[in-house]
Design brief:
Phenazine biosynthesis protein PhzF family, globular, alpha+beta, isomerase, Diaminopimelate Epimerase, Chain A, domain 1, 39% strand, 18-stranded mixed sheet, 6 helices, isomerase activity, single chain, 2 domains, Phenazine_PhzF-like
């Protein structure tokens, strides 16, 4: 079995978000969870090759399985390219707990189509959010747009949390125990905090998911896919087939660039992608 460590959503080593990738034939669920707990990446992907175009991928955090993971998918296809299971400038399909989704590779840039985008309930108790994130309630929202915290999903549910400035975003210091409890009570994986106060990219982001064992993540594909749809429904991004860049991980010293694209105007979907760098490869014995 081949094992890789891949930095996703970056073109330099030690940037982006690292993921473990295992290409296997028939590992048990128990082994997958134990292995993910041992290596302790935010997600480890386990790939089973179905045929030349189709792959089954399961994603595990250190303490649970999740339906979908953007950065681990990008890492997976970087590993599959290296192992010559896929080829550049091709289209493939992954079977996940969030459904069967297409993945496209063009000049080593990997893009995946996300699951059906959805918006959920809004969260207007700013006193609670202020307490959990240790920011003043008046810093929640946006100076130019009427944005409120709201659940969103393109495969995994997160709460989109707008804040008014870059400083406010970087000043966030969550109470992770309270955030995990809040996430569990509201049936979400975590909270994706963001600000439009940026001169580069569409938004600056930070992602917190202590409920699934990830206090903070350097690059989150599914969350930025959900954020793209949230911003589209709020009139912030409007163009289809145009690339939007989201910057994440800067607060952790692991700068990441996540590229998204709205497709199918009559039935909107979101694509998420980026580049990746292999840090190491080996055999799993």
């Amino acid at each position: 079995m081949k094992y890789y460590v891949v930095d996703a959503f970056t073109d330099t080593r030690f940037g982006g978000n690292p993921a473990g990738v295992v290409i296997h034939e028939n590992l048990t669920e128990e082994f997958m969870q134990q292995f993910a707990s041992e290596v302790r990446f935010s997600e480890t992907a386990f790939i089973k090759i179905i045929d030349d175009l189709n792959f089954e991928i399961r994603f595990f955090t250190p303490n649970s399985e999740v339906d979908l993971c953007g950065h681990a998918t990008i890492a997976s296809f970087k590993a599959l390219l290296d192992n010559k299971n896929v080829h550049d400038n091709g289209q493939y399909f992954i079977k996940t707990l969030a459904g069967t989704l297409p993945v496209y590779i063009k000049n080593s840039f990997i893009m995946m189509e996300q699951a059906e985008p959805m918006l959920g309930e809004t969260f207007e108790d700013y006193e609670v959010l202020s307490k959990i994130f240790n920011i003043h309630k008046d810093l929640i929202g946006d100076e130019r747009c009427s944005l409120v915290p709201q659940g969103a999903s393109t495969g995994l549910w997160d709460i989109m949390l707008p804040v008014k400035s870059k400083k406010a975003l970087y000043d966030i210091q969550p109470n992770f125990k309270e955030l995990a409890e809040f996430s569990s009570n509201n049936n979400v994986g975590g909270v994706h905090a963001f600000t439009l106060d940026t001169e580069e990219g569409t938004a600056l982001c930070r992602n917190f998911a202590p409920l699934v064992g990830i206090d903070e993540e350097a690059a989150t594909g599914t969350s930025n896919g959900a954020l793209t749809y949230y911003l589209f429904k709020n009139g912030v991004v409007k163009e289809f087939d145009q690339e939007y860049d989201f910057l994440q991980g800067y607060s952790m010293g692991r700068p990441s660039r996540i590229t998204t694209k709205l497709i199918h105007p009559n039935n909107p979907k979101v694509m998420v992608g980026g580049r990746a760098v292999i840090l190491t490869r080996g055999e799993l014995i």
